[in-house]
Amino acid sequence: MSDTVWSYRDTTWSQDSDLVGYDVEASDGSIGKIDEASNEASGQWLVVDTGFWIFGKKRLVPAGAVTGIDHEDKTVMVNLSKDQIKSAPDYDKDEWNDDSRGHHTDYYTPYSGR
Which CATH superfamily hosts domain 2-111? Predict the structure, then answer.
């Protein structure tokens, strides 16, 4: 099941697309803009700059939580509420490792169903 956390539900969503700068919409509103994106086969994810909403924090959202991408409007939709994203583990690029990835996998697995 954890493999679904780190891959898009539709493989065409991220092909030939740079998602950096896209807006991210939770089920109950905007959460910020994509600051980084990974398309590696073993780990597709987005880093969302939440701006003033969660001041000074970024959230890593695995691709499995993405429910759609609108390239025309430059928007990524996720199946999470703002509170679920706010409660997610903190993301620190300098401390991203297998252990922190495990925490993210545990947290996001329930939201990454097919």
Answer: PRC-barrel domain (2.30.30.240)
